[in-house]
Amino acid sequence: MKIKPLFLSLAMAGMCSQAMASAIDQNSYANLDDVITTHLNLDLDIDFADKQLEGFVEHTLQWKNAKSRKLVLDTRDLDIDKVMYQTANSHWHKASFNLASRDDVKGAKLTITFKSQAEKVRIYYNSRPEASGLQWLTPKQTASKTHPFMYSQSQAIHARSWIPVQDTPAMRVTYSARIQTPKDVRAVMSADNSDALLKDGDYTFTMPQAIPPYLIAIGVGNLEFKAMSHQTGIFAEPSILEASVAEFNDTQSMIDKANTMYGEYAWGRYDLLMLPPSFPFGGMENPRLSFITPTVVAGDKSLVNLIAHELAHSWSGNLVTNATWEDLWLNEGFTSYVENRIMEEVFGRDRAVMEQALDAANLRAQLKTLDAPDTRLNLKLNGRDPDDAFSSVPYTKGQLFLLYLENKYGRDKFDDFVKTYFNEFAFKSLTTAQFVTYIKANLIEKYPGVVSIDKINEWVFEPGLPSDAPNPTSDAFDKVDAAKQAWLSGGTTATQLPTANWTVHEWLYFLNNLPRDLSIKKMTELDGEFNLTQSTNAERAFAWYMLAVSNGYQPIYPALDKHLSSIGRRKLIVPLYKALITNGKKDWAQNVYLKARPGYHSLAQGTIDALFE
Ligand code: BES
Ligand code: ZN
């Protein structure tokens, strides 16, 4: 599928459109040059017994090519019942359609042919229980154990497994929906959720702002709502609602700070949906309603940068969108940068810098394990599933690139650039090449002699990190280093480690930097003093288990079993499975996995299956 360059906005930016290569979204079959959908109307039944969505989607079409009579949609594992279409002022007609055989990455191309250009087309269909973009949970797999739960995760290319759609971030739709559910559960969507406040099994939603299809989202379960401020609130199962509200009650001030720095929040309300622990991500920036893992409800707000991150996508990602998944860093790198700026405003510079330093260290470690091409910001997917190229490169290398520019130009000029960029490309998609052209005109050439275009090209197109990349360090961590050294060399005991005022960040830094072959005696001493095996902070527990697996400290295993069986967030489990396999614990890991696998999301299953193959 070809994507048209943004002639209009680039012309406004005073640029030459010739430099814009049109991008190819290799992950979509859509024929955007012929026709685009401008609005979707969903009418779906949520069938928990058969684990399927059943109903129709109506596309409102805008034709680009007067000769075309064909609409090509993306689908995966959908059963298509019939297709009807309507031309101006006419009745509904049956359309002929062809569902091609399934490609492992892209799914099945659905080609609909009309006798004359349709204004509206309705596809009657149902999803299958194995839909890659949906997870269906039994009551036992939820927090309250009493009601079933289902939710979608459409990014990157999973919207097509529950909606036949032009599944590319290069286009945008508004949507409306009627969703019918059993009466004892509530449905919410990435839309206006006011109708969801009355629990009656019949819900209507509208999303008047145009969004790329990967941001269409739904969640259904035993959900209650509690407001946190005039603009923010939480949908969650009752048993975790109060704790979530207490954890995330800084959300409004995050929005207020971001508004000041980057321009007014464009989406009206900002609510959170707490998902079951099997959610494979930390969060997902579904507009108006971010989806959130419960593993960040730590009791001390130590992991709320996740909320800053998903909120930041309201500017980078949801407003200004990557045109293809090879440009993911435009979403995630900008968002990681904005996230950290919000954290600095709300929680202060020390914490923001600690988070930068932890992420940069993780990136540097990960760079050593990745193939060089996958360490470029502008990825080359070469037909791969975007999920398979997922790493911290688009996130943290992207963030370091923007930090580098901030350092070079100063905050005044750089903030101005970012704000103008968000404004310029609002409700549009762009490629990396288009971004490079834009930054060249609006930053590099505007303030000559600060950063060269070669340097920009190095950051964006070359593997690894430039030699002059920022290397964030924190005074707090320097103190942790000194205390750690004293303890390692036997000068002090664990009791004397100055942990009383350590935040989770200092703990993570301490644990991540202990020698991987730390003696069992030292491990026992730490565990005895700080009860790390029973840590209730999921990130701190993870860091401790990683260390313990590498040096053979046995007492963690019952707790590790529980961690792996109760959490499905890939970041907190996949590295542990990998470490277990390479440290002689493959059989133990496989047994745990056998038991835990049915509770994991299919994305996590896919990733971990591959480890055991
Ligand atoms: N949009 C991403 C999740 C995602 C990325 C899903 C690519 C599918 C494909 C979300 O905003 C995210 O980045 N989540 C992170 C948050 C973290 C960096 C604070 C996560 O899940 O860990
Ligand atoms: Zn993100």
Coarse shape: globular
CATH homologous superfamily designation of the largest domain: tricorn interacting facor f3 domain
Under CATH, the topology of the largest domain can be stated as Immunoglobulin-like
Averaged pLDDT, please?
Answer: 95
Given helix and strand content, the structural type is: alpha+beta
CATH architecture of the largest domain: Sandwich
Task: Please give the domain count.
Answer: 3
Strand order of the largest sheet: 5-4-8-2-1-11-13
CATH domain class of the largest domain: Mainly Beta
Helicity level = 25-40%
Question: What would your notes on this structure say?
Answer:
It is a single chain. With 613 residues, the protein is α+β, with helices and mostly antiparallel strands. It folds into 3 domains: 28-167 and 173-312, Immunoglobulin-like; 320-461, Neutral Protease Domain 2 (Neutral Protease, domain 2, Orthogonal Bundle), CATH 1.10.390; 477-612, Serine Threonine Protein Phosphatase 5, Tetratricopeptide repeat, CATH 1.25.40. It has helices at 7-12, 238-247, 251-262, 305-312, 328-347, 349-367, 393-409, 411-424, 432-444, 453-461, 475-488, 504-512, 520-530, 538-551, 557-566, 570-582, 586-596, 602-612; strands at residues 35-47, 52-63, 70-75, 78-86, 92-94, 96-99, 108-113, 120-127, 134-137, 149-152, 173-180, 186-189, 202-211, 218-221, 224-227, 232-236, 270-274, 283-284, 289-292, 320-322, 428-430. Strands 5-4-8-2-1-11-13 form a 7-stranded mixed β-sheet, with no helix packed on it. The chain has a 5-stranded mixed β-sheet with strand order 15-16-17-19-18, with helices on one face. Strands 9-10-14-12 form a 4-stranded antiparallel β-sheet, with no helix packed on it. A hairpin with a 4-residue loop joins strand 18 and strand 19. The longest helix is centred in the middle third of the chain and has 20 residues, at 328-347. Zinc ion is lined by residues 309, 313, 332, 335.
